[in-house]
Amino acid sequence: MKTEQLVAALVADGGRAGRPIAATIARALAAGLAVSLAIFAVTLGPRVDLMPALETWRFDLKLVLVAVAVMAAGACCLAFARPQSSAHWRLCVALLVVLAAGALAAELSVLPRGQWMISLVGSNALVCTTAIPLFSLAPLVGLLLALRRTAPASPMLAGAAAGAFAATCAAVIYAFHCFDDSPLFVLVWYPLAMVPAVTVGAVLGRRLLRW
């Protein structure tokens, strides 16, 4: 069978395969996150002022940002696991970009200019850039193993999407410990902390997800 015929057959079967692929990815992610949550519980744990923080708009906005990032990364991971991806993931990414721009504009409008750099630097940058990659490891392994059962058109891109999915989920976990709630901090340091998982995912995906 020629490559074009194989791709066409896989695409034609996309409707029936979509749910199993999603279920496989979800199970792999859940298993990895269980490990990450256990590590989180014995290392960092939630911040001591979690309940009061939930009543502040910056902390709530931080949770919304990372949750939408998970949705966008998950849509990319699911789309790139197939021989041909739909355009739905673009809508999720666009929503994340719009939300991030709105959060940044809101912060800059209420925060005095002299506080911008202080809020951007924050107090937990080192912890952030260490914890998110650490909490990404187990989910990334699970996702890569799950994606080996799929037929991505671009193994590298699928691996990178898996890394982004794992890293955004790790960011959700870390967000409950992080004391820096400013969108300035979140939109700079959280993405930087996700780079290692995305890079590792792309490199491993290129080797492990070939078909």
TrEMBL record:
UniProt xrefs under InterPro entries: NrsF
Positions of transmembrane segments: 21-43, 63-81, 93-111, 117-145, 157-176, 188-209
Domain of life: Bacteria
Record flagged with keyword Kinase: no
A Pfam family the protein falls into: NrsF
Keywords: Membrane, Transmembrane, Transmembrane helix
Protein name: DUF1109 domain-containing protein
Taxonomic lineage of the native organism: Bacteria, Pseudomonadati, Pseudomonadota, Alphaproteobacteria, Hyphomicrobiales
